[in-house]
Amino acid sequence: MIHVPFTFRSLDKLSDLILIEPTIFQDERGWFREEYKRSDFFEHGIDCDFLQDNTSYSVIRGTIRGLHFQMAPEAQGKLVTCLAGEVYDVAVDIRRRSPTYARWEAVLLSAENHRALWVPLGFAHGFQTLKDDTVVGYKVTREYSRASDRSIRWNDPQLNITWPIANPVLSKKDAEAPQLSEVDNNFEWRALDSG
To answer: Which end of the chain is more exposed for a tag (fewer CB within 10 A), N or C?
Structure first.
């Protein structure tokens, strides 16, 4: 029997984003899944070292965290999973000159579907919780850098993101974030660069 721990799929609108579906091994005790396996990820174009793991807990349904990124050279690739609850997970291409600049893609990540999303360098990331008591975990390729940390306004009209829940719960930082056209951003797309 061949063991296939993950299925990898590029997304339609932003092909640099990769949706990862692990194989779930379930029995009467519960389930087991592999979260990350370097050799499998490398084989599918995700060649990185994760340097920090983060976990966020959101009490209230409708909470938005994002849209966040770190400027280069402290830019972070993120592997995002939902450990409890459910999120509408959004990534925005912010690489200037990219054919998909300012476009976004959203996927549903939940404790039930076990999916993960790979968000490469050059993308802003955020999510909205669809259930109370939601926990999101993400592995990142660079440590947090306050000096490089940036946010983009969740309701920037240029992006026109369709968030599922109106009147979100926001931090002061996210509520007052600049629009994409105003934010410091040093990402440039190159035709031969996959992210």
So the answer is: N
